[in-house]
Each structure stands twice: as C-alpha cells, then as structure tokens.
Structure prediction request, 226 residues.
Amino acid sequence: SYEVTQPPSVSVSPGQTASITCSGDNLGDKFACWYQQKPGQSPVLIIYQDSRRPSGIPERFSGSNSGNTATLTISGTQAMDEADYYCQAYDSSTVVFGGGTKLTVL
Amino acid sequence: QVTLKESGPALVKPTQTLTLTCTVSGFSLSATGTRVSWIRQRPGKALEWLARVDWDDEKFYSTSLKTRLSISMDTSKNHVALKMTNMDPVDTATYYCARTIGRDYGMDVWGQGTTVTVSS
Prediction:
C-alpha cells in the first residue's frame, strides 16, 4: 500500500521560515493536503490540492508538491504555529496520512 | 454551521464489536460530492484513516483494516456509522469523523473526536 513519510520533528526560530516535507513515490502525481493539530484538539485543514488555503488560514502557510515530495512552508513562523503537522495524500480512492511532524518554535 | 459529532461507548471489551455514530448538521450527506471519513489516533501516535462513505453510498476502507470495518450512512438521520469487529487493546484511540466536499479537497471539517478504550 502507498506510504508517505515525514520527519518526526522540525525546529524553527520565531519569525523564520519552517519547511516540513512529505515524501512518497511520485507524490507529485497526486494531490497532497496538510493538517495542523494542537494538543487536545482536532486536526485543522490548512492546505489542500497541494497549495490551496481554506478560508481563514493565514497566508504564511503555503504548500507545493513536485516529484516525490510535498512541502509545507510556514513563513514568519509564530509561537502559535507550534503544533503537529500531518500530510495526507489520496491513493486511488483511499487516504494515506504521514506519520506527523512536531514543529517546535524555539 | 457545519458540524460533525462522534458518539459511542467510551469502553469496550476485547473481542467485542465497536459501533460509532457520526451525527452531521449544516450539510446534506446525499449532496453530490459529499464524503465522510472515519479517522483514528492512538495515544501519542499519528492519524490513521479508516474508512469513507460517499454521497452515492460508495464505500472505501483502509487496506489493513478492511476485514474488520463496516461503514454505513443513514441520510434520514444525518448519521454515518462505523463498526469495527474484534476489538483489541491496540484499538484504544480517539476516533474522529470528518467531511470532504469534492474530490481531493481534503477534510475541511472534523468532529471533536470520541475516545474509546479497549480493556477487560
């Protein structure tokens, strides 16, 4: 079955740019989504169809997807962005989540 | 306002069958493009997709769990149900339902989740 892989953790200083990757075979041929999850809360969709932001999601969140890697980029990272981030792809009509990346804002 | 709310037993015994219900409001389960998924998250672990039912009653399951899962939809009650057979302590998790509208659009609204513990 299809799998996508994320780094377990990423650290960033406030105001800097954080990049979180999601890797999978020919992932660029599929659509990727990204979710943010804070402790004790349900996940929130922050990027869909590789690079589109739902209404209400700040512009500092952006996404790209090419080749074998999808990337979530957070520009001007804020303390409130500290959370777990999950990528998600579609494999045929089933759904695959990555293992999650814990973003620490130091 | 679009909401989804999970309900079901907080505790089940090993080998029992778990039945969870997702009650939706603010949208129609039968509207073209509407899809509802069940996802779980074991304590401290990643999200794991379990199953999905689409507006046309087409159903899809996780490859690894498909023999244990059954998803169904009752549009008259605005319910999506998930049954998981032969529960084991490793199935202890928070179970979420979430909505997708359209193809490849991501799960834009999630329920609050319901925690299920499997223990004798």
